[in-house]
C-alpha cells in the first residue's frame, strides 16, 4: 500500500499538470511509488473539477466593499451608505424622502398663505 504522503504528492503534481493543461500524465504518475489502481479513480475527478470550476473575477464594487470591510472603515456620507442597500430599500428611502420634501413644501405654502391672509385682515381693520 502506498504511503499517504506519496499519494498526496502525486495528486498535487497531477493537479498542477492538469491546471497547466498538460495532456501527458503518465510521466508524472511513473515518478511516484503509487499503484496505478489507486490513482485511476482520481484522474477523471481532477479533469472534471478542472472543467467545472472556472475562474471568476469579482466585480469592482465587491472588491471595494471587501476592502472597506477588511480595513474596518465605514462608508462615508449618506449617498455611499445608500448605494450598497438593496434596490427595494433604496426605492423606499427615495419615496420617503420625496414625501418628506412634499410635506415640508406644503407646510411652507400653508404658512405663507395664512401669513398673507392675516396681513390682509390687519390692513382692512385699520
The helix content is: over 70%
Total helix count?
Answer: 7
Strand content: under 5%
Shape, please?
rod-shaped
Mean pLDDT across residues: 83
- Output the radius of gyration: 35 Å
Which structural class matches the secondary elements?
Answer: mainly alpha
DSSP, total strands = 0
Which regions contain 5 or more consecutive residues with pLDDT less than 50? Answer: none
What does the largest sheet look like?
none
Which series of helices and strands comes N to C?
HHHHHHH
User: How many domains would you count in the coordinates?
Assistant: 2
Distance between the termini: 115 Å
SSE map:
Elements: H1 4-19, H2 26-31, H3 36-40, H4 42-52, H5 60-71, H6 78-83, H7 87-125
Helix pairs in contact: 1-4
What would you say this structure looks like, in words?
With 126 residues, this protein is mostly helical. The chain folds into 2 domains: 49 residues, no CATH class; 50 residues. Helices cover 75% and strands 0% of the residues. It has 7 helices and no strands. Helix 1 runs parallel beside helix 4. The longest helix has 39 residues. It is rod-shaped. The N and C termini lie far apart (115 Å). The model has no long low-confidence stretch (mean pLDDT 83).
Key terms:
126 residues; mainly alpha; 2 domains; 7 helices; rod-shaped
